[in-house]
Write a structure and sequence with these properties.
This protein is α/β, with parallel strands linked by helices and 257 residues long. 38% of the residues lie in helices and 25% in strands. The protein binds adenosine-5'-diphosphate (ADP) and magnesium ion.
Length: 257
């Protein structure tokens, strides 16, 4: 069953720039779909349309069979810029609890969810800290915990690890795979990083720019449980990342002639 359907999505901004041209794909229940493409190909625009923040010029988005025409329930988003996504005046636990205040939960149930999701991202002992007392990678883990606590039907992630160092990034990628498997979470993950897109995905969509459109789609052939070192050495990983890189390079060189 498809949890999220994007059908013929086109977005032309008021400036006349066509950010997306007739994009169609679906995300199935429990799947991690990566979308990879160069900067400016419309990835953020796509997620804004999916989360109802931007109205498409044409085409439709359906979440669980219902048309998205405003900010839908059941979605959570993790953004690139962790420094702006947490409330600095709230402690970590309050940040995680905040979206839960809109749900019909008791104080006790909220507290349990906060505790459980902070533990899932390895921050069980940091609930009393303020975001600015934590490293960038930890802040991004708080943002992930906040999304987990909400138990969204779909988690959207927009280049969430682009502004952390490489070491931290690997850890956050593994955390993403782990919550995807452990919580059976449906995730739409957007990135310009080819390695990251292949490493994380069950299925992958490659976008081209000018205008943003689907270049190709790939079912990723890798084990469910992955490891930064051994998975990236697998011949199938190397072959698939090269294939994606080639698609992106060919599209760029066609544009430049
Ligand atoms: P990406 O996230 O892949 O880098 P974006 O969705 O941010 O791409 O942008 C896609 C295209 O749409 C770019 O050409 C960008 O300049 C343009 N664009 C994005 N947001 C706006 C906006 N609010 N108004 C006008 N043009 C925009
Ligand atoms: Mg973007």
């Amino acid at each position: 069953m498809s949890t999220l359907e994007v059908d013929g999505l086109t977005k032309v901004y008021g400036t006349g720039a066509t950010a997306l041209s007739s994009i169609s794909f679906e995300v199935r229940k429990g799947e991690l779909l990566s979308i990879v493409g160069p900067s400016g190909c419309g990835k953020t625009t796509l997620l804004k349309c999916v989360s109802g923040l931007v109205a498409p010029t044409s085409g439709a988005v359906r979440l669980l069979g219902r048309a998205v025409d405003g900010v839908p329930e059941g979605l959570a988003v993790v953004f690139q810029d962790y420094s702006r996504s947490l409330f600095p005046w709230m402690r970590v636990a309050q940040n995680v609890e905040f979206p839960l205040l809109t749900l019909p939960l008791s104080r006790q149930e909220r507290a349990e969810r906060v505790e459980e999701s902070l533990a899932a991202v390895g921050l069980a002992d940091k609930g009393g800290r303020y975001p600015w007392q934590l490293s960038g990678g930890m802040q991004q883990r708080v943002a992930i915990a906040r999304a987990l606590a909400y138990r969204p039907r779909v988690l959207l992630m927009d280049e969430p690890f682009a502004s952390v160092d490489a070491q931290t990034r690997s850890g956050l990628e593994d955390l993403t795979r782990r919550v995807h498997l452990e919580f059976d979470m449906t995730i739409l993950f957007v990135t310009h990083d080819i390695d990251e897109s292949v490493y994380l995905a069950d299925r992958l969509i490659v976008l081209r720019a000018s205008p943003g459109s689907v270049l190709t789609e790939l079912v990723i052939d890798l084990p469910g449980v992955r490891d930064q070192v051994s998975t990236k050495q697998l011949p199938s990983f190397v072959r698939q990342r090269s294939l994606v890189a080639q698609h992106i390079r060919n599209a760029a060189s066609r544009e430049n002639v």
